[in-house]
Amino acid sequence: MTSFTLHGIPVSRGIVIGRAHLLASAALEVKHYLIDDLQVEAEVERLKNAFATVHRELQTLREELTPEAPAELDAFIGVHAMILSDPMISEVPLEIIRTRHYNAEWALVTQIDELSAQFDDIEDAYLRERKSDIRQIGERVLKVLTGSAAVFTQLQARTKGAGHMIVVAHDISPADMLQFRDDAFGGFITDLGGQNSHTAIVARSLDIPAVVGMHNASALIRQDDWLIIDGDAGVAIVDPGTLVLEQYRVRQARLERERKKLGKLRNTPAVTRDGQPITLLANIELPEDCAAALEVGAVGVGLFRTEFLFMGRTGVARNLPTEDEQFEAYRKTVLAMKGRPVTIRTLDIGADKPLNAGEETATNPALGLRAIRYCLNDPHMFLTQLRAILRASAYGPTQVLIPMLAHVFEIEQTLQLLEQAKQQLRDAGQEYDPAVKVGAMIEIPAAALALPMFCKRLDFLSIGTNDLIQYALAIDRVDHEVAHLYDPLHPAILHLIANTIAAGAKARVPVAVCGEMAGDDKWSRLLLGMGLREFSMHPGQLPAVKQEILNSDLGLIKPVTRKILRSYEPRAIARGIKRLASL
Ligand code: PEP
Ligand code: MG
After folding, report:
1. Which of 346, 401, 514 to mutate to test the pocket of ligand 1 (most atoms within 8 A of CB)?
2. How many angstroms is it from 466 CA to the middle of ligand 1?
3. Are 244 and 228 in contact, with CB atoms under 8 Å apart?
4. Separation CA 289–CA 286 (nearest Å)
5. How far apart are the first and last CA of the chain?
6. Which residues face 537 on adjacent strands?
7. Which of 146, 276, 351, 425 lies in disulfide reach of 272, CB 3.0 to 4.6 Å?
8. pLDDT of 265-274, one tens digit each?
9. How far apart are CA 144 and CA 367, in angstroms?
10. What pLDDT, in 10s, does the model give residues 39-98?
11. Is 35 in a helix, a strand, or coil?
């Protein structure tokens, strides 16, 4: 067979070489037949039992999550459990059996197809992606109904001693990804998925090379084909020739050596060659992530995305964590960081992070009731969170970070509510740090263009480049159709970031970057040259960024950065970035 190359969207870095393992889609193998009157209730029971089994499977998966499991997994399993409980899935197929006398598999697939078709008409990309969650849950139920042996048991049996196995699938659910975590496979590619699909996020946190959006890879690749997955370039090479294999083996070995070397930097202070100390902080989603943050030598938490405590909670429609539950999570984090500062961001729910799957109904959710807007709209909920954070501040240095601020009255209302929360704690005789600092995420272009308004009222700023780019360039960050327009080097973006850093320095208000740009070592020198001194990122990215800082000389970087900022020509900017890398 001749070698060929497939291209997709790179979602998780690294190189893996191994054999393909194709995950079959259970939906394709369903039998269709009509049952007679007497069989109806037995068939309904059969389907109900399958639903119950899958519920138990999800429950077990959840219970077996180890503390090291990626933070989002619990939320993802929760979303699947919720989909399974939805009457559209759990009841309509039973009605189809009763009224149309379809067999259970056929009834289920009919309803899943019907729901999928409705999802195709939805404009919102995040919601459209939830179609795959529905399909995945449907396939789980089908596997139970048809009694097909668990794919993963087969895979694990095959994997033992077989070298790396690369999963090739039309789509993989995050819950199924869980089954692979014990080194059972070395990478994955899927036909579907965008950069921010749940499965992609899990792959990134598991640190496994992965490429999604490969269209028809699962149809073109055959079981046991040799594959090279290049998670940096977003490429899969099928049946590579000896020469190509050799080149990738060399690259792979080099990456591995670099990784090991970087691991040794844990206790090395992050200081530039010309003596400027830089603060490297961790982004976390749950208190358990502090272990990884400390492991790589983070000097604090720069962004605790608290919404993961709120998402995917099954049960009643609006099942929010109580004040005590939140307080426990925040205190655990503050204690785990052992005196290092922890910046807790208030709830950033809405847009691509709905409280419950399918809850978002706005036409343009990213521009809707999200983050601080959501919180100010529900002061009772917001006060509960503020009290919980304040109570945790009695246990170690804690800062409060507010997402998506744009208007002065939002800042003022937030500060008033914080005062109210403090008063409530005083009335109840509960302790908190009265000097707790409050900061703003700068992630709406309007905020980045009105900085004195923020510097006057707040103690620190943190630039959210993910949203700043989304809103400034008007591109949905979860839509793979416009992913190529997501450009951190657009002159407008560079100016918004540089102005924010400069305005903070002028007003003596500390500025950090906590968006993805801070964790990509490609941009470290550029940000240093703009004057950035605080970077917050996923723990896995910290060693490479530290290495870049240790190799950087501000005296050399600054003039090149100034030149980049004077240019409005993308080609000249690209040349400047190259020059920075060569210094
Ligand atoms: C950002 O927008 O850059 C950010 C850090 O927040 P999130 O990715 O959670 O929106
Ligand atoms: Mg954001």
Report:
1. 514
2. 5
3. yes
4. 6
5. 45
6. 282
7. 276
8. 999 999 999 9
9. 41
10. 999 999 999 999 999 999 888 888 877 777 766 778 878 888 999 999 999 999 999 999
11. coil
